[in-house]
């Protein structure tokens, strides 16, 4: 039914309702009714127009998931057109009580983290949540000095410890060390225990809290992924406050990281950051084969002996399952097939590349403008060189600031940065669909480039960091922080003039 017909019927009906006996209607009343009607029509049509884009977005997403024809729509390789409909929402709820003060807490919780920088980051994040569950006072966590990376940096060497304590003051009481008088009053040294991985909050309340209450000071060791993935919404949002806000790098790290970012942006307005993760230890651990013959099999086999409990794996089987990282050449082929041009600037975040320049050359042939932190901050980087975690922090910053971030495995840095970029506005994050791409790379010489590129684009749908890839309960929370990413409501995201405001995160 057209608007004009509907309006006429509404007008006549309104008059009939006002004067059912057909008596004389005053002109002022007629004008009033007309003005009211026009205002109502304007409100309705304005509402529909202002939300046309919104409904189109939701219909488009539904169509893509149900119609085969949706797969032909081109992907914007630099940014998601739907990211503006989402925002980070980690705010504590009204019923989330204040932190328990130190003198009223159930005791002091010591945390010894494990692994490299980003693995320790997950441990620190979960340590705050566990302290909240136990109503404990958290002592600033200790970093791992004995792992493969052999970095003796302390928490305060990498993270702004005062900011960490202050930012979380409403959630958990955090101190730098156990008070001397408490330590002197203890009859025994602090009790040490290791909790099972992915432990539920109930485990901490049933098994850990009684020990904490009895001993007053308790240390949890090897603390990485020791808390369940799925928690209630308020604890998940606390995770986000810790990971995306409270864990701020020290000023020297932030300043150097930003200088590297500025050098990249001075050369190109936008750049792609690639985390190759093609180091010898990573390749050995994967159990995969990368075409290097007996020399490769021997070298990686020797490194693999470090882990006595690793099972024997079939390299071909692992590749078919999508468990092998792409080679630098394969990463380059994927990016070119997706549509990144030869003159795109790449920042490569990685340690020692297995095979060195010979392995990197095919990627450089595809993308000549390749840079690393070592190339962009040679002199300034020297004080950081003995400390692997501080070097990793520089890479973290430059990757986080990139227009596009490309992961090459499902390791800790890949997960942490993917989650952060989703939270910070769904910045484009590309994760290779290794399971499908492996077969495609094997047969790529049997097809023309356009066919190969088309198939790569089809493989990568659902692996480009789009908002609808993130569903509650999917994967690790650190990679898919669904509780902390909210969809804008119909009305609240409109300004007074009916337009969508710019998102501020």
TrEMBL record:
PANTHER family: O-FUCOSYLTRANSFERASE 16 (PTHR31818), O-FUCOSYLTRANSFERASE FAMILY PROTEIN (PTHR31818:SF14)
Full protein name: O-fucosyltransferase family protein
MF (Gene Ontology): glycosyltransferase activity
Organism (species): Phaseolus angularis (Azuki bean)
Domain of life: Eukaryota
Key words of the record: Carbohydrate metabolism, Fucose metabolism, Glycosyltransferase, Membrane, Transferase, Transmembrane, Transmembrane helix
InterPro entries attached to this UniProt entry: FucosylTrfase_pln (IPR024709), GDP-Fuc_O-FucTrfase (IPR019378)
GO biological process terms, semicolon-separated: fucose metabolic process
Residues that span the membrane, as ranges: 27-52
Family: Belongs to the glycosyltransferase GT106 family.
């Amino acid at each position: 039914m057209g608007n004009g017909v509907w309006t006429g019927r509404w007008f006549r009906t309104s008059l009939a309702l006002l004067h059912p006996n057909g008596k004389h209607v005053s002109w002022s009343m007629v004008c009033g009714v007309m003005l009211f009607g026009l205002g109502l029509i304007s409100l309705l049509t304005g509402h529909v127009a202002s939300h046309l884009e919104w409904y189109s977005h939701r219909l488009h997403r539904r169509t893509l998931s149900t119609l085969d024809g949706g797969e032909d729509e081109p992907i914007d390789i630099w940014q998601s057109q739907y990211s503006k409909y989402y925002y980070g929402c980690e705010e504590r709820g009204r019923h989330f009580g204040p932190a328990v003060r130190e003198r009223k807490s159930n005791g002091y919780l010591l945390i010894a983290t494990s692994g490299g920088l980003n693995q320790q980051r997950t441990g620190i994040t979960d340590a705050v949540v566990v302290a909240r569950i136990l109503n404990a006072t958290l002592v600033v966590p200790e970093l791992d000095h004995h792992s493969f990376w052999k970095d003796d940096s302390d928490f305060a060497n990498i993270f702004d410890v005062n900011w960490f304590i202050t930012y979380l003051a409403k959630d958990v009481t955090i101190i730098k060390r156990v008070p001397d008088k408490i330590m002197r009053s203890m009859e025994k040294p602090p009790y040490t225990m290791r909790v099972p991985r992915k432990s539920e909050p109930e485990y901490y309340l049933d098994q850990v809290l009684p020990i904490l209450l009895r001993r007053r000071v308790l240390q949890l060791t090897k603390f990485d992924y020791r808390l369940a993935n799925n928690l209630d919404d308020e604890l998940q949002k606390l995770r986000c406050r810790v990971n995306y806000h409270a864990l701020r790098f020290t000023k020297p790290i932030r300043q150097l990281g930003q200088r590297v970012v500025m050098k990249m942006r001075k050369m190109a307005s936008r750049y792609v950051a690639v985390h190759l993760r093609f180091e010898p230890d990573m390749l050995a651990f994967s159990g995969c084969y990368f075409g290097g013959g007996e020399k490769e099999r021997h070298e990686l086999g020797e490194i693999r002996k470090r882990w006595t409990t690793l099972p024997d794996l079939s390299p071909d089987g692992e590749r078919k399952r999508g468990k092998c990282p792409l080679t630098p050449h394969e990463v380059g082929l994927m990016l070119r097939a997706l549509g990144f041009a030869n003159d795109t600037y790449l920042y490569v975040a990685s340690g020692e590349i297995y095979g060195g320049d010979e392995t990197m050359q095919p990627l450089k042939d595809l993308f000549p403008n390749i840079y690393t932190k070592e190339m962009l901050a040679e002199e300034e980087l020297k004080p950081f060189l003995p400390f692997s975690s501080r070097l990793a922090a520089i890479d973290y910053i430059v990757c986080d600031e990139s227009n596009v971030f490309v992961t090459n495995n499902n390791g800790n840095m890949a997960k942490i940065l993917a989650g952060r970029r989703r939270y910070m506005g769904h910045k484009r994050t590309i994760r290779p669909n290794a399971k499908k791409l492996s077969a495609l790379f094997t047969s790529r010489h049997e097809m023309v480039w356009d066919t190969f590129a088309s198939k790569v684009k089809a493989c990568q749908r659902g692996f480009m960091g789009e908002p609808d890839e993130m569903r509650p309960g999917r994967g690790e929370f650190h990679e898919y922080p669904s509780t902390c990413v909210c969809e804008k409501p119909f009305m609240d995201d409109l300004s007074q003039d009916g337009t969508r405001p710019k998102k501020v995160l």
